[in-house]
Amino acid sequence: MPPNVLNTAVLGTGPLGLDLIERIRNSPYLDCGLVVGRTHTSRGLIQAAELGCTTTAGGVDALLDSDQNFAIVFDATNAFDHPAHWAKLAGSGARLIDLTPSSSGTLIVPTVNGDQAAAHRHIGLVSCGGQASIPVLHSIAGRYRPAYVEMVATAASVSVGRASRLNLDEYIDTTRGAIHQFTQADSAKTMLNISAAAPPPPFRVAMTVVADGAEQGPVRELVDSAEAAMQAIVPGYRVTSCTATDGTVRVIVEVTATRSRIPVHAGNLEVISAAAIYASEQHALSKDTELKEHV
After folding, report:
1. What are phi and psi of 114, to 5 degrees?
2. Which amino acids are annotated catalytic?
3. Distance between CA atoms of 286 and 6, rounded to whole angstroms?
4. DSSP code of residue 119
5. What's the Rg (C-alpha) of the chain?
């Protein structure tokens, strides 16, 4: 393996884990050394093996028993198990990128503070709703001090797996805390709707910001800038509505998936998977720079 290509492992074999595998295999900076599931008979682990990946079952303990060294481990399991995963991996030297809403690690949103990703060994990605909303909210808050921020995410039921359903409370709490952190709003509220509509709707986040002085023209410029930055990472990200009236801003964003292994309505998976790869590649790029400086 070239010195600037990092060996990675994926914990979790749901649709999110499988999308990560594809992204890793397409990255010039990453290699997928191992995919870890709970049981050998899981459909996702079988699919990972069919893709040519080395696989094992037994969770994080099986990963630690591997004879490989991993620069990065992606945790695509659930918020309940993540703290134990970090406790076991902390001494391994690997960077752990958390795709669960566990609220642990340094929170990274690529277009907001992605330049900090390489400096941290334990990275949290908030949630899909946080990744979709915080770029817009942070952009608005950079100009107008928000008294109140509200974010309502709507995801298609078929794109919300068992682990996500078990972590709904963690999703709400972690996303609300991250929105407060990145906007410094006096008050923040987060909600999640799981829609059983047919056909499945695209992933959508509706945001409300109450801020004195917010006006349509400047707000639209801020939102357009955030949208353009996000589209460089998530091509299916688009603002569908933006209004500012009497100090109340309302923005709606839709995210559609553009990759082969997840359906078009599963933008919730696309946005957080893209963030995970961005954060890991920042670490790889920093290592590449170190190598060049020593040549």
Report:
1. -60, -25
2. 128
3. 11
4. G
5. 19
What pLDDT shows up at residue 103? Answer: 87
Q: Could you identify the residue written with the tokens 């949208």?
A: 227
Which of 289, 278, 290, 288 is closest to 113 using CA atoms?
A: 278
- Between the CA of residue 92 and those of 14, 72, 135, what are the distances in Å? 25, 10, 32
Helix (H, G, I), strand (E, B) or coil at 159: helix
Q: Is the pTM of this model over 0.85?
A: yes
User: Which candidate, 263, 251, 256, 260, places its Cα nearest to that of 236?
Assistant: 256
Is position 268 annotated in a ligand binding site?
yes
Q: Which two tokens mark 265?
A: 């309505």
CA–CA separation, 74 vs 67, rounded Å? Answer: 18
Work out the angle between the directed axes of helices 128-141 and 267-293 (0-180°, nearest 10): 70
**What is the tens place of the pLDDT at every residue in 168-209?**
999 999 999 999 999 999 999 999 999 999 999 999 999 999
Interval 116-133 mean pLDDT: 97
Neighbours of 246 (CB within 10 A): 7
CA pair distance 236, 264, nearest whole angstrom: 9
| CA–CA gap between residue 293 and residue 224 (Å, rounded) | 37
Residue 10 belongs to what H/E stretch? strand 6-11
Contacts of 119 (CB under 8 A, 6+ apart): none
Number of residues that make up the chain: 295
H or E segment and range at residue 33 = strand 30-37
The tens digit of pLDDT for each residue in 18-63 reads 999 999 999 999 999 999 999 989 999 999 999 999 999 999 999 9
Q: How far is CA 12 from the centre of its chain?
A: 15
> Residues 195-254: pLDDT tens digits?
999 999 999 999 999 999 999 999 999 999 999 999 999 999 999 999 999 999 999 999
- Enumerate the β-bridge partners of residue 151: 190, 207
Residue 61: partners with Cβ closer than 8 Å, 6 or more residues away: 88
